[in-house]
Amino acid sequence: MTLIKKHIPLAICFIVGILTLSSYYVPTQASEKYVESMNKWENIVAGFAFLLGLFSLFFSHTRKITRRVDGWGYSLFVFVGFLAMVVPAIVSNGKQMVGADLTGLGWGYRFLFNALSGTMFSVLAFYIVSTAYRAFRIKSLQAGVLFAAALVLMLAKVPLGQMIWETLFGWTGGWDIAQIGQWLMDVPAVAGKRGIMMGLAIGGIVTALKIIFGIERQYMGKD
Amino acid sequence: MSETMFIVGGWVAAGLTIFLFSFLYKDNPFFKAAEHLYLGAGMGWVFQTVLFQTWIPKVWEPLTKQGDWTVLIPTVLGLTLVTQFFPKISWLSRYGFTFIMGYGSGLVIPLTISTDLLKQIGGTMAPFMVSEVTRGNILSLVNGAIIAVGFICVLFYFFFSVEHKGAIKKASNIGIYFLMLYFGAAFGNTVMGRFSLLYGRFDDLYKYSGSNYFYATHVILGVMVLYFIVDHFRTRKPAAEEEAA
Amino acid sequence: MILTLNAGATGLIDEIGERIPKDIAPTKKYGTDYVILPYQPNPVAVMTQLGMDMYQIYDKDRDGALLREMPVMKGIRNVKDMQLGMCITGTALLDYWVAYTADKFKMPFAGGTTAVSQIGYAPYLQTGQLKGLMGGMKGAADYELLIDAKEKGTAGLDALSLAHIMVIGLIVVANIMMFWLKYL
Q1: DSSP3 helix / strand / coil % (chain C, rounded to 5)
Q2: Would you state the pLDDT for residue B36?
Q3: Which residue of C has its CA nearest to B144?
Q4: Does the CB of B73 have a partner CB in chain A at under 8 Å?
Q5: C127 vs B49, B119, B202: nearest CB
Q6: Residue A133, domain member (yes or no)
Q7: Structure confidence at residue B149 as a pLDDT band (50, 70, 90)
Q8: pLDDT digits over A160-205, tens only?
Q9: Are residues A173 and A152 in the same domain?
Q10: A69, A89, A112 - which closes a domain
Q11: Residue C169 located in a structural domain
Q12: Quick check: is A15 in a domain?
């Protein structure tokens, strides 16, 4: 049983990983055909991966409704929202527009999904303001450098900031704030980001090798 | 679609937007309902997209119309992922996961080496190449030197295998300042990014406040304010009665 | 070719598709000048395949018409036959486009990202892996000025200016209060 439950899946990971890796460095017609097949298969498998999230959501909320836990009524809205998208989609065969006419699915996207998803992310703007006031305290030189960089970028990105800078420091004849902001993004920020990028890249390569060789197996779940 | 449905849509969009924003004042049933609706609608949207643009054209049609049985292999691998929810057969999901992980890991290694390692090192060295130096652009050389020094110092900061003391500590401290400059610039950009999203929503609320949408924004906002006032007095009353007792 | 690799963005693509013949580019003809492709999951597989034989992944357009028969796809087998790619995204997908398409298949690539992500792509811009980058609302406003078509990007900058000044003001006030309480 261990062969089927553990060793064969690990062997699949190793074989697919090594073949995919070597096909990059050995560009033959066979390796191209292999990568093309893998791309097509991977496309289909990824389409099913989304079902994990869907079933998890449905099981969790169905349990809440059947057990009548506190707030179980809200779980009904999950299914209402789901059906509000899927039923019109089936009716209109997945089309948002038929000619110049908006279908039920198009209506659902424009007035339901768009509004909900846009608002969920835009609430963060208020938290930014709250964080700026409560947490952004200059208690050290490093925090001061962070604030200075943030201040320069915030002024540089908007016309009012550029006007303020021009009024206060325009007489010096030096760089304007937009140029300083651009320099900040092009030079010191690039250095910082590049270091982070390289660290992440090395970590990613090591993790990928560990997955291929079966050392990293957490994604397989419990033995 | 009739004009009425557009007006109803405006009311629905304005209502849901205001319900979600109402959380900023206090958690309330309208927010919870809108939040759960978003979960369901999001999943529903992705489900219908995957159904009509992947499962039907990539699995059903090749299988039934073209007799291509090879699509069954990735389909079965994909379906094994779902067995995770059934403890007795959850080991089957390992086949799907190992296929995905093997493919992803195999692709990521050469491309990360090329894009994030070699090209970035090359980009750091580029200003010091003879062809660049002989152009005599002093600013470019100075900027290149700052990037190179900052890059190396940041790498020193992240190198934890050696104790940070002496010269390594000094380099690491310089690296921290470059990181602070990067994070400060990122924060400045984040403020713009978040407010841009808010602008989009307020633009829509402004559109739905017009007479053609029968002042949807104003009415719904008014109803929410009324609800919070009534709720405030309703929840305060038992506390006042307790005090009196 | 207009395509999306994000399931939540298919609606946006439909809206753009609706606007192209109306006001974005009324002189352009679908199938001859542009084509809209369906959503595909697994961005990495799609990007890799686009560099080899794109018809293995995209054999039909969004409406089910055969791609190979369209005039706009004449002479195009993969991204190496294209002159420029552009990714406009609010996610980290541009990283994948640079790694799996632009770098691997030597395709000139540009990006349009949110302001939050913009700073993260500065190294790619510096090395030439990205030919251009539009970041945030300011980037959108700059582009609108470039093509002389002022829309929401330009209109929103006024509101954004005030928002930025407000955040700066709050940080300054909070720090003045902190120093006042600490040292005075």
Answers
A1: 55, 10, 35
A2: 95
A3: C126
A4: yes
A5: B119
A6: no
A7: very high
A8: 888 888 888 888 877 888 889 999 999 999 999 999 999 999 999 9
A9: yes
A10: A69
A11: no
A12: yes
Provide the domain count of chain A. 3
pLDDT in tens, A79-124: 999 999 999 999 998 888 887 788 899 999 989 999 999 898 888 8
Checking if the pLDDT of B245 tops 80, the result is: no
Report the pLDDT value the prediction gives residue B240, as an integer from 0 to 100: 61
Q: How many angstroms away from the CA of A14 is the closest CA of chain B? A: 6
Is residue B191 pLDDT above 90, yes or no? Answer: no
Among A23, A46, A192, beta carbon nearest to B154 = A192
Confidence band, pLDDT 50/70/90 cuts, at residue B223: very high
Of C15, C57, C123, the CB nearest to A194: C123
pLDDT at C124 over 80: yes
Contacts of A184 in chain B (CB under 8 A): 181, 185
Chain C contact set for A50 (CB, 8 A): 7, 41
Evaluate whether C10 touches C51 at the Cβ level (below 8 Å). Answer: no
Q: How many CA atoms lie within 13 A of B24 on its CB side?
A: 18
Q: Say yes or no: A102 and A63 in one domain.
A: no
Residue of C nearest to B42 (CA): C8
Both tokens of B70, joined, read: 């090879």
- ipTM metric: 0.84
Per DSSP, the three-state class of B132 is helix
Sign of CA dihedral C82, C84, C89, C91: positive
Chains in touch with A (3+ beta-carbon pairs under 8 Å) read B, C
Strands A97-98, A101-102: parallel, antiparallel or unpaired by DSSP?
antiparallel
Query: Is residue C87, in this structure, part of any structural domain at all?
Result: yes
Query: Per the domain annotation, does A220 fall within a domain?
Result: no
In this structure, what are the phi and psi dihedrals at residue B175, rounded to the nearest 5 degrees? Answer: -60, -40
Residue C173, in any domain of the structure: no
Q: Which domain holds residue C134?
A: 7-151
Mean pLDDT of chain C: 89
Residue C78: inside a domain = yes
Q: How far is A105 from chain C (nearest CA, A)?
A: 9
In this structure, are A97 and A60 located in the same domain? no
A146 contact residues in B (CB cutoff 8 A): 180-181, 183-184, 187
Which residues in chain B have Cβ-Cβ distances shorter than 8 Å to A25?
A: 110
B117 to chain A, closest Cα gap in Å: 6
pLDDT at C144: 92
Query: Are B20 and A123 a contacting pair at CB < 8 A?
Result: yes
The whole domain housing A145 covers 138-186
Q: State the total domains in chain C.
A: 1
Question: Residue B54: its chain A contacts at CB < 8 A?
Answer: 43-44, 47
DSSP letters, A104-134, are HHHHHIIIIIHHHHHHHHHTHHHHHHHHHHH
Does residue A47 lie in a domain region?
A: yes
Same domain, A31 and A55: yes
Q: Residues 6 or more apart from B213 whose CB is under 8 A from it?
A: B7, B10, B11, B14, B207
pLDDT in tens, B95-143: 999 999 999 999 889 889 988 889 899 989 988 887 777 777 888 889 9
CA B126, CA B121: separation in Å to the nearest integer?
9
* Shared domain check, A78 and A60: no
Could you say which of C10, C104, C114 has the minimum Cβ distance to residue B49?
Answer: C10
Query: Alpha helices, DSSP H only, in chain B?
Result: 3-21, 29-50, 61-64, 72-82, 93-112, 119-125, 130-133, 138-158, 167-207, 216-244
